[in-house]
Amino acid sequence: MSNNNKKEGDNVSFWLPTSHNTKGDTLTPHKISTIFLIQEYLELKQETADKKEEIPTTYRKKFHLLLLKLIQHPDLPYRDFHSLLTSETYGIHKVHLERFERIMQDISSSENGMEALFDLQGMIDKLMSEPAVKNGGVSPSGIVGLYLRRVHVTLDKMSFSEVLGLYKNIKKYYERDLRAIAIAPGLKIEETDLGIMKNNYMERASQCKWSLKQAELFVAQQSELLLCDETQALSPKELQNKLCEIMQDNPLYSQAYFLCYLNSIRLRDYFNALDALKRAFDRNTLKAGSSADHKGYQYSSLNLAILHAQFGHVTEAIQSLKECIMLAQENGDRVCLDLAQSWLTFLQEGKTQLPETAINSESDKTIATNVSVSFQALVKKSALSGSIPAKLFEVLMKSDVLNCQHSIMNLMATSMAERAALWNLYGKNEIAACCSQVMLHISLKRLGKTYNSDGICEAICSNALWLGLQGHYNLAATVLGHAKQRFPRYPLSRFWIITDCYMTSIQGIVSGKWHEAEEACSNLYRLDRELSILQRASLNIAKRNLKQAQSLLEELLKDESLTALTQVRAKILMANTFIINSSTIMSQFIEVLSEALTIAKEKYLTYEVALIDAHFSYFLLGMKMPQRALNSIKVTVETVLVNGSLYDKARITFLFCKCLIEACTEKEDKVAKLPECLNLLEQAISDFMTLECYTKVKDIYIYLAKLYNDLGMAEERNSYAYKFRMMEQQYPTSVEYLDIFH
Predict the structure, then answer these.
(1) Where in the numbering of this chain does the Anaphase-promoting complex subunit 5 N-terminal domain appear (predicted)?
(2) Which residue from 44, 57, 325, 429 has the least number of CB within 10 angstroms?
(3) How far is CA 526 from CA 483, 514, 531, in A?
(4) pLDDT of residue 443
């Protein structure tokens, strides 16, 4: 879902509302404890400097990392706070820990504990007025300096009764967990536990546990992780719990609601997603009086329009887009305006023209992103409509140039995935596999960020499918397992689920495991109806349920929205049903294949053209025209052997050898050709055995036994007849499944 800020240099992922939140500046015992920890460190550092000594570098580094965690993360119970001080990752110096424990104990037990709070203001004043060289290295503009100044300002605004209440809360905060620390003094806390730490309080304290700055950091980090690497983000349940805490402490912080919306979207909980989206831009409505208060409302309408578009609610989506365009014009948000108009053009099927600024403003990274996406969308649409491949690769190169110039990592991956898809479409499967490998070897990391976009997922699935088609089922399963771990949730999980079902169905059809193939086709139907019908038809052809296969294919071909590739594959399968059925008029077979050949050549579907030629060769061989069959298969064999699956390679090799032998009219010529063909047939047998396609192995044994019988070579005939019998005993097959070119 789109949500861009018109300020180019803003690092926050989503729009930040301008309303003020006073609860974000509330002082809590956790914050005061952090200040005391800083105070004792600076005093210890000064004392060691007076003695011409210094704190060991290891402890200084650990303390600085600890301080960053305490400032950026939400409030911790004192038990967890103390555990951090003694952990291996953040453990502070022993003397520093003793002094901190002493001051916390003095505040809790001494009647003069209030004085320590008032002394904090003087300490902070002194630190801010002195140069960094004299005050221990604290800069007023640094992270610690800003933190101290915020605490100072808040303390200065507090009344005496509020300071007294803070003091009582500190005592309760310290005493509540002091007993737990005494019971389990050796309890440690690791760095990885900090992000998912549970709230130990049975009831949350009345003070704010999440300051506004802490909430901003948390939301920005989780938003970036959801965009780039979801596996590193919190789980949906944990993230929702954190967001509930943030929304309770900062009810007017709209970004938390928007992240809640994204969290619901990844679970496909659309009801709560819509509710969160409306709440995200419904904060502080009573105070919204100026136009500045409406900044970002256009993104609410934009995301609502996209949500409607996902469900096909075109009218509602267009209404939301028109509202978005109006709000974007009022706020002068050109980026949102371009996005809205792009979506409007898409929904109205080109009736609305894109703004010219989307092409002229290539210096803007966001606009460059839109232009690059437009190029990629144009390539996809043009490829399906049959445009010249060279022109499409040229347009895709322009997208690559924009992506490299503006370091748009996710679109780089998408572009490479689209290039691989184009090569697959045009039948160059080997080159497509190389493109996917290249993309996975390219480092798409930048500043420590990993980009897990849909292009990466498609490349992984493409490699897994290619390995599976080559018979490397274990390797394919390993690659798919990686995809499952890396992309666990919808919509990206859709790619590897489809790949898994498709591979399972192919493996089941080839090896004769009908039940597994049937189940895989049923699972595939939910995600890709057309591919599922094609696989189910292929399964029925393998089972010799020809009428059912024809019924499925006829129903599929009635759909006018089918892509050319799907049409051609369906017609090839339909031709298979005709050639297997002996009662079919052969003119039907020729007509269907000719239609498929015409479409395939018009759309540059090279591999499908090769398969059609192979079917014609099989037909001509059956019509006792071996020489013409050989001429046809010679054109086909190179394309299939380079780009085909292991199954296609093996069956084309078998067909080629049959054509080569049958084209010899003399017995002596056939005997001379046999040694050359036997090597090829042994390779085909090996390939079929790898795929567990034992019926095809039997077909080769039957053919060789009959051939040697015709040639009068009894010993060789008996050898292959024996091999067939042993194979039949080990893997029995019904006679009706033999000798099928499928």
Answers:
(1) 28-177
(2) 57
(3) 20, 19, 10
(4) 65
